[in-house]
Amino acid sequence: MSKTLVSKRLVACATIIGKAQSFYEWKGKMVQDSEVLIIMKTTARRYPALERAIKALHPYEVPEIIGLSVKSGFAPYLAWIFTQVDQSKQN
Amino acid sequence: MSKTLVSKRLVACATIIGKAQSFYEWKGKMVQDSEVLIIMKTTARRYPALERAIKALHPYEVPEIIGLSVKSGFAPYLAWIFTQVDQSKQN
Amino acid sequence: MSKTLVSKRLVACATIIGKAQSFYEWKGKMVQDSEVLIIMKTTARRYPALERAIKALHPYEVPEIIGLSVKSGFAPYLAWIFTQVDQSKQN
Questions:
Q1: What ipTM is given for this predicted complex?
Q2: Which of C49, C45, C30, C53 is nearest to A2 (CA)?
Q3: What is the DSSP string of B34-49?
Q4: I want to staple B81 with a disulfide (CB 3.0 to 4.6 A). Which of A72, B12, B21, C2 is the partner?
Q5: Does B22 contact chain C (CB < 8 Å)?
Q6: Where are the domains of chain C?
Q7: Which CATH class is domain C2-89?
Q8: B57 reaches A (C-beta below 8 A)
Q9: Contact assignment for C25 to A6 by CB distance below 8 Å
């Protein structure tokens, strides 16, 4: 999924943090699931399209997709994100 | 701790990211600790009760409990969080 | 890097989350890199100095440095962060 989202310019970078364990209740039962945390760096403008793409690619009925807003950051890195997800350069 | 917090409807989901190493100074000495990062998904309204519960369950004198606010997210997932931590359904 | 930033009182705590895999395009090519996620706890006031220090220590030309703002947190822990990065105590 990560490579697809990068090549579609929906994220500039996707960082997979391996081996996560999630606890939650689903339909009344406690569930313990092996999961993967993916931290995706994109822009607010590209978020809606990214969310649709994740929903289409993800195996879950209700995947956990959460957006946090960046308050500060290394300017050249933030500029690079904008360049990478710029739709006009979509290959 | 994670299972307890889920069953008490203080969090909808707790995701444990294993094997973290923390560096910090404690009482003037550099400390390197093996720790576990737990990402807990809840609502702003349930946060105070969650913080009290973590403090009661956590072995540290001053545990690291930090709340970040969600800016955007997959609507059905966010709705599910609210349903799961709704106190009126506390078993 | 983490120990240096703690001893320079630029961060109160640095938590290294090991074994991350990042996908991104660099100069037109898809790259898959083994990386490390470091979650650094500091104050908004110390962030500019922290960013300069990371840039000086980091091997990348454009390192990913992102700041998120804390919305809520365990008061004694937040107070501890402010004490630890208080420049007047720099050794």
A1: 0.92
A2: C30
A3: EEEEEEEE--TTTHHH
A4: B12
A5: yes
A6: 2-89
A7: alpha beta
A8: no
A9: yes
